[in-house]
Amino acid sequence: MRKEEILARLDRSRAALREAVDRVPPDRRDVPPAPDRWSVAGVLEHLALVDERFTALLGGKIAEARAAGGPAEQDDPPLLPPAVEVMLADRTERRQAPETLHPRGLSCDEAWARAETARAAFKALIAGADGLAVSRIVHEHPRFGALSLYQWAGFVAAHESRHTAQITELIQQHSMGPALT
């Protein structure tokens, strides 16, 4: 079933993120590598903000679908299109997050705790959508268009993987430890 597949993907992306963070020396996790770059703590806080934002947005859509007596899913809902996956993985193009998703200065430990809480809520939202046609629960992404609930979950996992790669690059550029394999 797609729900288990997407929940497992979220778990894998979080495990890879944890591994990358653990490779950064603790005394470097709160220090931005450059004035215009986020620290590891900033990246984690950003990821928490993203999970919180989409949990709220998609939670509202699920509530609307339930209130309207939304139908059950008839087929396996599609996951994130491969072209979107490729675009998210491509780190040659630097992207600017909306100001509302910029970190505000949490420490790495605080940001990790917030990211974990936010991810648990997001996963609970996905798990709680049982019995609804998730392919019909959509929200517009400004760059990728209308994405269904499961596609948004795939987006969240791929977005997290993009930032895991960012942390890995930081490790390599600043000799903080061995690169992830």
CATH class: Mainly Alpha
SSE-based structural type? mainly alpha
Number of helices: 5
- Gyration radius from CA atoms, angstroms: 17 Å
Mean pLDDT: 88
Q: Can you name the CATH architecture?
A: Up-down Bundle
How many domains is the backbone divided into? 1
Name the beta content range: under 5%
Distance between the termini: 29 Å
Task: Count all strands and give the number.
Answer: 2
Report the major sheet: 2 strands, antiparallel
Which stretches of 5+ consecutive residues score pLDDT under 50?
Answer: 177-181
Oligomer: single chain
- The residue fraction in helices comes out at 55-70%
Shape designation: elongated
**CATH topology title:** Four Helix Bundle (Hemerythrin (Met), subunit A)
Give the H and E element order: HHHHEEH
Strand order of the largest sheet: 1-2
What does this molecule look like?
This protein is mainly alpha-helical and 181 residues long. The chain has one domain: Four Helix Bundle (Hemerythrin (Met), subunit A) (Up-down Bundle). 57% of the residues lie in helices and 4% in strands. It contains 5 helices and 2 strands; from the N terminus they run ααααββα. It has helices at 2-23, 40-67, 82-89, 108-127, 149-173, and strands spanning 138-141, 145-148. The chain has a two-stranded antiparallel ribbon. Helix 2 (40-67) runs antiparallel to helix 5 (149-173). The protein is elongated and about 55 Å long. The model is unreliable at 177-181 (pLDDT under 50).
